[in-house]
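wait is this the right file?? whatever heres the structure
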């Protein structure tokens, strides 16, 4: 019997830790990434740290400014609009294709994820406490919901691009601490997920496409409010 061992490089370690901090909201849009303390915190040298930052910059999560350093990407309203236009094109196509191909396991996965999102929101409403753990749970379940649909569509390049765009969107998603109506928006989003799931379960491709478009447009509007609120805070 053979045992397979995998070794994570220092660059991979730094990349995963940084990406997790970005998507988890620990590093906020506009924050500067100071290499020396960050390398010390991650337990790596500056070379693998820079390689990880380069990879994240290539994914659109970090802005590198020559002579000034690296910053968590701060999206402008125009960039956000364009990103969601791209998401709508790709994810509406994926939803319609997925309706024809969804397996029972994938439907079950989506069902689990909608329950996870609803449960997290219910706990937040009950306690009134917004924590990084709650946000991380919601972001990861949301990403997994859309990724499961993209996987079912059976087009790997489209799935990868959706994943990249989702990660950028996560920088300005689930932010009740800066957007006053975010709780209502998150609740509506959870309900929309359930509607999309019902269409997919019944193999209604046109309806899945329409519901996905509505969902992404609401997500865009919510993200725009967050960006505007953050911009006002900075000024």
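ok assuming it is, sequence goes like this
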């Amino acid at each position: 019997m053979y045992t397979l061992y995998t070794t994570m490089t220092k660059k991979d370690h730094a990349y995963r830790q940084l990406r997790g901090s970005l998507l988890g909201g620990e590093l906020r849009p506009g924050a500067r990434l100071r290499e020396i303390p960050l390398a010390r915190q991650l337990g790596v040298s500056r070379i693998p740290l820079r390689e990880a930052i380069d990879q994240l910059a290539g994914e659109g999560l970090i802005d590198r400014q020559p002579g000034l350093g690296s910053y968590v990407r701060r999206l402008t309203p125009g960039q956000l609009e364009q990103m969601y236009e791209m998401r709508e094109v790709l994810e509406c196509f994926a939803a319609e294709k997925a309706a024809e191909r969804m397996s029972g396991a994938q439907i079950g996965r989506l069902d689990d994820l909608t329950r996870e999102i609803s449960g997290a929101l219910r706990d937040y409403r009950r306690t009134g406490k917004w924590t990084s753990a709650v946000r991380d749970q919601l972001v990861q379940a949301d990403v997994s919901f859309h990724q499961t649909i993209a996987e079912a569509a059976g087009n790997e390049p489209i799935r990868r691009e959706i994943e990249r765009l989702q990660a950028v969107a996560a920088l300005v998603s689930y932010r009740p601490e800066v957007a006053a109506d975010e709780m209502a928006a998150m609740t509506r989003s959870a309900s929309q997920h359930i509607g999309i799931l019902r269409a997919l379960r019944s193999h209604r491709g046109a309806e899945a496409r329409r519901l996905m478009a509505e969902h992404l447009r609401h997500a865009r509007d919510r993200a725009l409010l967050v960006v505007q609120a953050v911009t006002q805070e900075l000024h």
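The chain is about 75% helix and 5% strand. so i think its the right one actually
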